[in-house]
Design brief:
Elements (H helix, E strand, L loop, with lengths): L11 E10 L5 E10 H7 L13 E7 L4 E3 L2 H9 L1 H8 L8 E4 L2 E4 L12
Antiparallel strand pairs: 1-2, 1-3, 3-4, 5-6
Length: 120
């Protein structure tokens, strides 16, 4: 897609996600695969219905500097044109490594240790 041509590496990733129910009926999302969008689109086509869930598997996009998970091509295109994304891509937040994707959403990592903020 031409809208993604100007992206740098390690900004947007394609996530392959499995949706599974646990014993109490809650849906949990497990990341099966994560690939940089630039590398992914060299070998795969991304069409308008790319993120449609099929048989408990769904493709999603993750914007690393913004810590956002996007569930459609249109949402990704709009996000990439936004002011906050451009600012975060130019000047990424300092705490990016403090976050991880859990159950399909970016969450702050739990730090183990005593003291304030997990610091001994």
């Amino acid at each position: 897609m031409s809208d993604f041509d100007s992206l740098s590496e390690n900004v947007v990733f394609v996530l392959k996600v499995s949706h599974e129910s646990n014993a109490n009926g809650r849906i949990h999302q497990h990341i099966l695969q994560q690939t940089d969008l630039i590398h992914y689109q060299k070998e795969n086509k991304i069409d308008k219905n790319f993120c449609r869930k099929e048989a408990k598997i769904q493709m999603k996009f993750s914007c690393y500097p913004c810590r956002k998970v996007l569930e459609s091509v249109d949402a990704l295109n709009c996000h990439l044109q936004g002011k906050k994304h451009r600012e975060n891509e130019t000047n990424p937040p300092d705490d990016l490594d403090d976050f991880e994707i859990i159950n399909g959403k970016w969450k702050k990592r739990a730090f183990n240790g005593g003291g304030i903020g997990g610091v001994n």
